[in-house]
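user: can you give me the structure for this one chain? tokens are fine.
assistant: on it. calling the predictor now.
[tool input]
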Amino acid sequence: MRNQIVPTNNRARMIKDMLANSGGRMFSVTFIKANGEERTLTGNYGHVKGQDGRNMAAGHEKYITVILPERDEKGQPLRRNVNCETVRSIRMNGTTINFE
């Protein structure tokens, strides 16, 4: 059984479309974590082989999965979920897009 997609705002759709059309290029995203701390991640956007539904945020349209260049102790790519509603900026192809 697949997770039901939970609809979200236009910002999340715009960010996802922009990243999907980036051709898999590296990007940096600055966002506010759930604890209120600001964080910047650099990585790629896309599907990781083996991402099979254990990712609880995958069913929510407001999240993007950032694939980090680092790997875990088993050699698997590390990934982090980012809530698009808390994104402050995205830097890609030498351009920075700021969000309010």
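assistant: here you go. The chain has a mean pLDDT of 81. The chain has one domain: 10-95.
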